[in-house]
């Protein structure tokens, strides 16, 4: 670079503190870090509502094809016809699977999908004259549901589930008014229970001109069993990193496509993909569109993986997914129900919720049980969620686990239940065999240290070692 | 292809345990009306070989840098990615692990995020950085939302018109449904930079923040000094948005200009273009905004044995704790993409990142000089640039279609977003454009 190409006032000093490492050092550093992680490819993750199924390696291979990975989004559409075809077909697949009419693949995550879906609802109602002010959210809902509602300018009204874990139409009726834009539901809900009132509930909402939004986090229970589009759902999002096997990556990236009934299609984000005999093109001409929620097309690399997954499984494989997911969850429930308190007696679908009620008398709580499971080589279930269940342990095995794995997990849980009684201290001080023990989270919040900084007596050559 | 490992014997045994005679009985309680219509009308599953064939056929219909000469920037950049990056992110321990809510078994992910946060503070010259947001566009939106939270009583947000048009669109979408906030535009001048005079006129005591690209959509490196001054005079916050993250390997960081918030897109640093996603938004700011920040944060602490460790922290800002009162609804941090950048920054390091940036500047400026001299194209804007610049080219639409016969895409026409800028091209040159390609570009554009 020549000195006059960029004026000096725009140039920086070298980046102080930046790494200066050989390639082998870099690789060793990250390899050693990786070995301190649990992962699906190492152990079982029965995390309720997360659907920690196998992330097929085939999908990783095809996503890395240069003709899919090395594409620029602003290339003229004529030069990315294969990509546009993939997106178009994926839209149709997801519409068919969910029983809806139109799909956007733009949202980068489930939460962004929720926001997009709520914006579509708001725009639709706004066009009819009144966007309304409130959204009803069940007490079992994922935290992103109320957070997304607020971001969309709605006030959140909570509805309590009944003692069967379902939404009672008679409890909904007084809350439902012409001031309520939507009811957000998850079905099956976060207790793993299919809400048998769903169609009645939808009617109560529709009768007052409101819409039903489905959080599709639990789609793994529904493939070939029930379609949200037939339940009275108007708008929904799907988590591709759950039901559709794209990897969790330690916290993303995922994708949250949104599917709507035809009457709401005009409000979908732009651009939309059109198909003619000449091929695929991009269409921005939708004046009622909610606009753009993310740059470019969304998380294309993730969409590619989901597309390959749906191709691999096909209709028969997808139906097998939910059937085996339900079988696995019900099997685990049976194996555990004599040792742990089951929160609800209702039939469960792909996940079930236990509590620590039977262990509390020994001073052992859900957190302790979770930490002790780490010593047995299992990631714990989802804990303390949903909020309606005190000390919740939400278990979702998914369909890709074998009976042997389920038995090993059940045996570990049963052993911990026995330890709670006979040796509670062992459980309360767990984990004992992980790379680090319980961490002081209070201290982390009280005195936040969110980055490394060189201290005065450190030289450039002093290695930063984490003590093992 | 199926990934369910159950044998028939397993199924029978499990059904016996739960007291059912068939799997259908397990969901027998689902209303019949729903079950009858639930059949999925898609083809049967394909084998691994068949899936690969189908994907390869789709891939073959797309233009890649291997077969085409592409000079495309506009928010996504084609850069070298060292082999170490994919070696790390394709490890199952990273790619198939969950969000690190159980820190004892997630120290790999957590420490990598801590390192990521550290590197972004260093790159941007800021005090604190989060673990990542969806992309540069939503990061810009979250910057505006945070500014709005901390600047109580103010209503106006000013966006430079030279900020990436898709990002401006995302910000508008995020703000549309919120009360007491309005968006205003600041035009750009003949140099292709945010117009200082207009800005000075528009900023007042009701301004929440001013948002500018750095470099901006035209590739121009903006002089942030007068913009900072205009903001300070009225207590408005300054947020910079960087779509070409590599530029910060060479350019004076937003923190040193006195910016309050620095956001942008991280894709340039180790993440494949992938038709624009996934990538991640980086978000860094001054420490006084810490508790108003969106997104995940990893902090250092100790365990029961006094060992150093890392945890997610300050979670009371986030959706899973605060629900409708959360600072954002975001749940993800696009972790694996962030990890790719962390490896990239470690692999290139202090000298490598600067050197790569300098190579980009040299190549882009050489191409620019040749296009102006030999292809006789007039520059559109006069501001200094990193690796992207703008040129005027007569009869652009027709020439672009013609040049496809040469497998050449010389840049992005600007009139789709700026109707007044017709026959104007945004050209990006990176280290991945070979000398022969640049020769080809110059010769092709020199033709009438």
Tell me the distance between the termini of chain A: 45 Å
Supply the CATH architecture of the largest domain in chain B: 3-Layer(aba) Sandwich
What's the helix count of chain B? 16
In percent, how much strand structure appears in the residues of chain B? 5-15%
Overall spatial form of chain B: globular
Q: Count interface residues per chain for the largest interface.
A: A-B, 184 and 193 residues
Counted up, domains of chain A total 2
CATH homolog superfamily of the largest domain in chain B: Type I PLP-dependent aspartate aminotransferase-like (Major domain)
What best-fitting shape of chain A do the alpha-carbon axes yield? globular
Give the CATH topology of the largest domain in chain A: Aspartate Aminotransferase, domain 2
Whole-angstrom Rg of chain B:
25 Å
What structural class do helix, strand and pairing data of chain B support? alpha/beta
Number of helices of chain A: 14
Gap from first CA to last CA of chain B: 55 Å
Provide the domain count of chain B.
3
Beta-strand share of residues of chain A = 5-15%
* Main sheet summary of chain A: 7 strands, mixed
Describe the main β-sheet of chain B briefly: 7 strands, mixed
As residue ranges, the low-confidence spans of chain B are: none
CATH homologous group name of the largest domain in chain A: Type I PLP-dependent aspartate aminotransferase-like (Major domain)
CATH architecture of the largest domain in chain A: 3-Layer(aba) Sandwich
